[in-house]
Design a protein that fits this description.
With 294 residues, this protein is of the alpha/beta class. It has helices at residues 41-50, 67-79, 95-102, 111-116, 125-130, 143-149, 152-159, 161-164, 180-189, 207-214, 234-247, 256-268, 290-293; strands spanning 12-15, 24-29, 57-62, 83-87, 106-109, 134-137, 171-176, 194-199, 219-223, 277-282. The longest helix has 14 residues, at 234-247. Bound molecules: pyridoxal-5'-phosphate. The site of pyridoxal-5'-phosphate (PLP) has 16 residues, from strand 7 and helix 9.
Length: 294
């Protein structure tokens, strides 16, 4: 399969919000790269696809609202390669699952125990036997190849600084789920600018360990999970609403809403002084909003 030379462009836009206290903020809109293949997912997938030259398609894993499987299935339909999704839990009919089916992804529900076994050594063997011509991609498109694919975001942002009137910037701010996207930015920055990751999952999910396996230094992880992955509270939902009303930026509650709210908390606590220039990465995920609004 491949190579796929589709390189979508992520616009960099100024963000004006009343809680910034003189900090200057721009948002790299990965949610705007494509109507279907949205967010950080394509960038993480590019490296995996490049490794799949001798395969006919891709097999990967995720949950019933997975942004990763959604982007993968949409890419398979767009570029004409077969996709198989291994799903956490028991059959459900979410808007994401309906899309996966419409995009032609073949689904297998593993239950919860079956899904938990995904890190065990023998996990892939039966799937390789069933789908010998499909290339396995880890959950979320992670690992070093996934991270390297995100490096291009640094180039894209830097190329757009003059349009903002910025000669430079001080740091990046983004949500971390596995930490793969963050690691990609750290690698591409090679120490030039710090990368802050607001964790969307509690620390015991191993984000710090994942990132540490990929990069050494140049980043900082903070807890942005608000009590757990996918835990939503009224303050968060009000913040997402208020942001949309104030500047039109759509956020979702699992990653981007929590990450931007964590930034607000840090600015209020005085972590960044007036005049600091930050790039917030909108990592997409808006398709998952349908799980919350019906
Ligand atoms: C919308 C969204 N933002 C951020 C992330 C986190 O990305 P990473 O796993 O590369 O840290 C994910 C997925 O995990 C996601 O779906």
């Amino acid at each position: 399969m491949g190579p796929f030379d589709w390189l979508p462009h992520a616009p960099l836009e100024p963000l004006r919000l009343d809680w910034l206290k003189g900090v200057e903020l721009a948002v790299l809109r990965l949610d705007r790269i494509d109507p279907l293949i949205s967010g950080n997912k394509w960038f993480k997938l590019t490296g995996h696809l490049a490794q799949a030259l001798n395969a006919r398609g891709i097999i990967s894993l995720g949950g019933a609202y997975s942004n990763h499987l959604h982007a993968l299935a949409a890419a398979g339909k767009r570029f004409g390669f077969p996709t198989v999704g291994l799903l956490r839990g028991h059959p459900q009919d979410t808007p994401t699952i309906q899309d996966l089916k419409a995009f032609g992804m073949q689904l297998h529900w593993l239950g919860y125990g079956g899904y938990r076994a995904r890190h065990e050594p023998g996990f892939w063997r039966p799937w390789r036997e069933q789908y010998p011509d499909l290339h396995p991609v880890p959950e979320g498109g992670g690992g070093l190849v996934g991270a390297i694919g995100c490096g291009v975001l640094v180039e894209q942002a830097r190329a757009q600084l003059p349009a903002l009137g910025w000669a430079d910037y001080d740091a990046w701010w983004l949500a971390a789920g596995t930490g793969t996207t963050l690691a990609g930015l750290v690698l591409a920055e090679a120490g030039a600018h710090r990368v802050y990751g607001a964790m969307a999952v509690p620390d015991d999910h191993g984000v710090a360990k994942n990132v540490d396996a990929l990069v050494q230094g140049g980043y900082e992880l903070l807890d942005g999970s608000r009590g757990g992955f996918a835990k939503v509270d009224p303050v968060l939902l009000d913040f997402i609403d208020a942001t949309q009303q104030a500047c039109g930026l759509p956020l979702e509650p699992l990653y981007t809403g929590k990450a931007l709210l964590a930034l607000k908390t840090q600015i209020e606590a005085g972590r960044f002084t007036a005049g600091t220039r930050l790039i917030f990465v909108h990592t997409g995920g808006l398709q998952g909003n349908r799980g919350f609004t019906g």
